[in-house]
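User: Hi! I'm working on a homework problem where we have to compare a predicted structure to a textbook description. Could you give me the structure for the chain below?
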Amino acid sequence: MKIRKAKSFLLLACILLLTNLTYADDDGVTVETEEDTSDSSAANDLSYESPYADPAKFYFADHFDDSEQFASKWIKSQAKKDDTADEIAKYDGEWDVELPKRPLLPNDLGLVLKSKAKHAAIASRLNRPFVFSDKPLVVQYEVNLQDGQECGGSYIKLLSSGKETTDLKQFRDKTPYTIMFGPDKCGNDIKLHFIFRHVNPINGTITEKHCRKAKDRLDDPFKDKQPHLYQLVVRPDNTYVIRVDHKIINEGSLFTEFTPPVNPPKEIDDPTDFKPENWDEREKIPDPDANKPDDWNEDEPPQIPDPSASKPEGWLDDVEEMIPDPNAEKPADWDVEMDGEWEAPLIANPACEKAVGCGLWKAPMVSNPNYKGKWRAPLIDNPNYQGKWAPRKIPNPDFFEDKNPFKMTTIAAIGIELWSMSSDILFDNLIIVDDETLARDWAAQTYDLKRKLIDREAETVVSRVMKFTNENPWMWAVLLVVVGLPLAIFIYLACSKSTASPTARAK
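Assistant: Happy to help. Predicted structure tokens:
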């Protein structure tokens, strides 16, 4: 009876603790851990208002919460792709501003690509052009692949200033851009693009410079159907940083981390220099003085029948291992002219089941001790070796040295031009600034709120208890009294009963 009461008390204490415990989150807001109140409490705690973007500080900003503003701010492309079949050449992908499929913050809308397997393009002009001078370029936006992604991109393009970007209705794949940035995936090939178009200071030609891949793969954003924050920072000291969800996943120099490199080599191979016909690149050659030994027999096989093996007693030489199935019958529709003479299928001979073996006996094969293989002369150093030939170097006629590749072409607009096999790709909170602090503050008012809600929903009751206990050490004393003490009593009573005398147990 005592043990039953102790068990009941322990169970009741744990239930009361886990279902009624409250804790304060990072914002000092009290949240109950009861399952039926956590969602509503979290939604009330993290109130959302569309962030304000000061035009004097933001080159571009859009939270997409104002559908009327969106209609006047963004321009859908009416162009067609070149060298593409007419039925798919038109940019007729459908764009809309709407709530995400899984709303997190009230009235938080996003730009959604509704269609799939269609070319889609949309663009908007900056508040003022971004000129690469003495301040960094900071680009930041959210993407939520609401249906996941198997093949397609969700990157953006920062369009170059010039006559080809004056009419954004003609925005297409060949519209000049300064930077392309964002995630892309097709099958197992996952990328986070950072491409900038570099202008040759000598002849004005333009070359795309592709950033090396990050060391770690970014699989989760393509399958977890949650919002993710992408940020690119390009600095006047010719360095860059790429962050995903505030974590640095790639960084380096514009000079060294791009293919092809910004600056070409000073020297190149002479295209008119060819290897002489008598140039000997062989480091080793067969010894010309070596002769095959007289006893070297190349005809010996690598394996021979084991000469020490003998046929086991009871081996049935005259009995076949396989015999025609005596129960098989020729199919009624068998056509001799079409199918040939019918033969019953072969089956294992029942007479061999208990015998040592049946059929023609052969000794097992073993390695041939006399086998040497084909004779080859041993190798010696080549006395005529001239080394590995390489063409001579000449000055690169196209050499130049750009000491400041950060000075890229001025950005006039921002565009999204995609082909995707997934629909409902949601873009949100897209900004261009020259101050990383502004970008962090903007994220704090938008993405970070969503992340807190998602993290709260993922928390279990036990993890909430542990989090609150770690943040409030005095809670360990409460746990010790409420949980530890009843547990100690239970163990004591159990042990007392088990050590009772045989007479007591008999009673």
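For your comparison, note the following. Residues 461-492 form one domain. DSSP finds ten helices and 27 strands in the chain. Good luck with the assignment!
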